[in-house]
Amino acid sequence: MGAGEIVALVGSNGAGKTTLLRVVSGLREGFLKVTRGAVRFRGEGLDGLDPAQIVTRGIAHVPEGRHLFPGLTVRENLRLGGYLLASRSRARETLEQVLEMLPFLRERSRQLAGTLSGGEQQLLAVGRALMQRPTLLMLDEPSVGLAPRMVAVVFDLVARIREAGVSVLLVEQNVRQALTLADRGYVLENGRIVLEGRGADLVGHPTVKRAYLGL
Fold first, then answer.
1. Handedness of CA 74, 113, 98, 108 (dihedral sign)
2. Region of 4 on the Ramachandran plot (φ > 0 left; ψ -120 to 50 alpha; else beta)
3. Pair 109, 74: CB distance under 8 Å
4. In the β-sheet with 192-198, what is the strand arrangement from edge to edge?
5. SS (H, E, C) 74-123
6. How many C-beta neighbours within 10 Å does residue 168 have?
7. DSSP labels for the chain?
8. Which pTM does this prediction carry?
9. Which of the listed residues 86, 102, 190, 193 has the most CB atoms within 10 Å of its CB?
């Protein structure tokens, strides 16, 4: 992936989208193993590395369900996201950058994460991932369960993250919106890529229209 590129990965439930993200980020929970091929990022193999080591290589993963710490404040959740940064000054600088991108988090900094709305929690989860200063951000179904207004806010944030030079690998149920935003897209079926191309081109592809857009 190029710097500041959005790649969308779409497909039906069970196609292997979440599994792929977990393999890349090392969140394999003891049962996901690479049986063929290899996971490489910027020329370096990631096989055998634990999740913390993968984070230090520049990959951040926001899983479906967000997995925040509900009993901690917004600021505490953010600071935990930056715990691997080399110095406290680096962490403070990064926190300020994240708060500038997501000013509502500054306003809610002392609020418990568990009291936020679903959409606000999703933004906090992305902000926590950005605290890792990633070059690649992987988002798993960031719009699931959100009201239409918050879906628009989340997609706007993804676009701004791209503008900041961070690459985004986006797994998303909203196929039309994901492919429209993405530079490139891949359609996954049963763990295999069956279609690929420019996001805008895939939106108009007959297979995508029939299987995922109901047209």
1. negative
2. left
3. yes
4. 59-62, 136-140, 167-171, 6-10, 184-189, 192-198
5. HHHHHHHHCCCCCCHHHHHHHHHHHHHHCHHHHHCCCCEHHHCCHHHHHH
6. 23
7. --TT-EEEEE--TTSSHHHHHHHHHT--TTT----SS--EETTEE-TT--HHHHHHTTEEEE-TT----TTSBHHHHHHHHTTTSS-HHHHHHHHHHHHHHSHHHHHTTTSBGGGS-HHHHHHHHHHHHHTT--SEEEEESTTTT--HHHHHHHHHHHHHHHHTT-EEEEE-S-HHHHHHH-SEEEEEETTEEEEEEEHHHHHT-HHHHHHTS--
8. 0.91
9. 102
| Residues facing 184 on adjacent strands | 7, 198
Asked whether residue 215 carries a pLDDT value surpassing 60, the answer given is no
Q: Which two tokens stand for residue 128?
A: 């926590």
Pairing of strands 59-62, 44-45: unpaired
Measure the CA–CA gap between 171 and 192, rounded to whole angstroms.
15
Which tokens sit at 184? 């490139």
Amino acid found at 211 = A
CA–CA distance, 109 with 76 (Å, rounded to integer): 8
Helices 148-163 and 88-101, axial angle in degrees (round to 10): 130
Tell me the average pLDDT across 79-92.
85
